[in-house]
Amino acid sequence: MDIKQLKTKSLEYRKTLLEIIYNSKAGHTAGGLSCIDILNVLYNDTLNITPDNFNLLNRNRFIQSKGHSVEALYTVLCDQGFFKRSDLDTLNKFNSHFIGHPTRKIFGIEHNTGALGHGLSVAVGMALAYKMDAKPFKVFTLLGDGELSEGSVWEACTTASKYRLNNLVVIIDRNNLQISGDTELINPIEPLDKKFEAFGFSVKKINGHDIASLKENFNANTMDENKPNLFIANTIKGKGISFMENIVSWHHRVPTKNEYKLAIDELEVEIDQNG
Amino acid sequence: MDNQIGKANLEIFAETLLQEAKLDNKIVVVTSDSRGSGKLVPFGQQLPYQLIEVGIAEQNLVGVCAGLSAAGKKVFGVSPSSFLTARSLEQIKNDVAYSNQPVVLVGISAGISYGQLGATHHSIHDFAVLRAINNMTIVSPADNFETAEVIKQSLNYDKPLFIRYGKKPTLNLHKKGQKFEIGKAIVVNQGDDIVLIATGETVQRAYLASQILKKGGLNSTVISMHTIKPFDKETFLEAVSNAKVLISLEEHSIYGGLGEMCASILSQEKISINFKILGIPDEYMINGSQSEVLDHYDMEPKKIAQLAKIMIDQ
Q1: CATH fold of the domain at B5-171
Q2: Cβ contacts (< 8 Å) between B95 and chain A: which residues?
Q3: Phi-psi category of A25—alpha, beta or left, where left has phi over 0 and alpha has psi -120 to 50?
Q4: Helices in B173-300 by DSSP H: which ranges?
Q5: 10-residue stretch averages of pLDDT, chain B, 314 residues long
Q6: Which whole number is the average pLDDT over A180-206?
Q7: Residue B267: is it exposed, middle or buried by C-beta count within 10 angstroms (0-12/13-18/19+)?
Q8: How confident is the model at residue A63 (pLDDT cuts 50, 70, 90)?
Q9: What is the pLDDT of residue A223?
Q10: Residue B60: enclosing H or E segment and its boundaries?
Q11: d(CA A132, CA A204)
Q12: Complex ipTM more than 0.90, yes or no
């Protein structure tokens, strides 16, 4: 998929994400908007995880450790054909499997997440298994920045480094906000690059909304072959909707009817401009 | 039957797993600096590529186990039961049980095996917390036979499984030809009026108590309820149907374990029986070796027998 097509996808995904959150009256709006470009490039360009190969053991894998941004993941998986668009209308409804965090009850979800600080250890286990068998598959995982206060994340880093898991790719959605405010005021995590480098990772800071840059960086040929790779993807929480960007309350706020309309209008304009 | 002392269940586990892992390289052990205490040094020496060492990081151990399992390995996470089931409880709940990864979590030195090392090292909460987690099977083998069998059967068990045992040699309780099945209790011996139900290393205490009772002319049934969950209600109900006295024994808090499970079934089935739960009471536990502490809390065989006699006369 070329860059222009991917950019259109990102805008369409934002519309779907807002629509399903608006309709279900619940969801993690702004964090989904900060990571949707990353998910877009991963699923449309990098991972080659499809409904056809999902049940196979031997394939690339993706764990969304920041499980609360599930609406973004559902949006992308739906577009990949893992389930019907109408299934998403059941989001958060009684007896629906489409709940507020990823669950393997949904075709396409790799691992159940929601409690933070779990995904990296599981990704490390998967990467270890592939490495033990000399299989050429990679394991990608997406972590939030607030999540990095969890000690288990750093435990997992030590194992990734010890076993030189060059088939592990960690992406940090560095949007600088968590539920109570600025990450550096809640519990400072900087300097992130130096921390992860000290823990044995090859670290690169990237723009988490620049589709071309994401596509290039997630390409296997550009990664360090001797270490686990980690991208600090600088993002904007609420990205793409002017009145949501960098506003902490949009962490899990649902747009009103008027806000929803304004947001969709903004995206439509962008879609037109993108051609 | 002669009272024959076997090996520690810990050793049987390690020997059985090494044998099986030599035949199947999908078997992987994950340790948290626990290969020595888990008797897995020979495993690490002979099959170094099938042992992952994560250091003293139990949360990570359980997550890594889940990932290995998802990618096709048959995984045994081995760590002291106290740390494995408390520190990593959320990983057990989410990454193993809820995510339905058929990981085998092995809680070594369980119960009060660590004796004088104190409350930080005891796991008298593990049945209680894991019972409340959906999709967890909990097995506490009594002797070498049950330990070897549960390890062998765990290889083809397609659900999350927790196994716990201690580190002292145990009595060989079973006759040749005994069958073992996860979820199916074993009746060690059959009697009339008294039922002694136990799990793990307390089964041998129940067995020795039944021998004392027999000398006094009282026959008793001894049940090894090796699987705490799913609970074998059928065998339990059959055993208590004609009995007058029931005593449960466990190396666990009296809260949330075997005894309370029995009480729950009895009350809901409207069965009235003279029943006593033996276990570790809800107090700062007395200091001592495993054996001393179990004796102290009325699980010494002669005290169990005395209690049964008193209860039968009530």
Answers
A1: Rossmann fold (3.40.50)
A2: 111-112, 118, 121-122
A3: left
A4: 203-215, 233-240, 258-268, 290-294
A5: 87 97 98 94 97 98 98 98 98 98 98 95 98 98 98 97 96 94 97 96 98 96 98 98 96 98 98 97 96 98 98 94
A6: 97
A7: exposed
A8: very high
A9: 86
A10: helix B58-70
A11: 26
A12: yes
Angle at A128 between CA A106 and CA A169, to 5 degrees: 70
Q: In what order do the strands lie in the sheet with A229-234?
A: A61-64, A139-144, A168-174, A229-234, A202-207
In chain A, what residues touch B97 (CB-CB under 8 Å)? none
Would you call A159 and B95 a contact, using CB atoms and an 8 Å cutoff?
Answer: no
CATH number at residue A189: 3.40.50.970
Q: In angstroms, rounded to a whole number, what is the distance separating the alpha carbons of residues A211 and A7? A: 7
Residues of chain B found within 8 Å of residue A57, distances taken between Cβ atoms: 71-72
Q: How distant is the Cα of A160 from the closest Cα of chain B, in angstroms? A: 10
**Fold category of B186-313 in CATH:** Rossmann fold (3.40.50)
Q: What is the pTM of this model?
A: 0.96
pLDDT grade for A222, boundaries at 50, 70 and 90:
confident
Domain that holds residue A22: 3-274
> Which contiguous run of DSSP H or E holds residue A206?
strand A202-207
- How many domains is chain A partitioned into structurally? 1
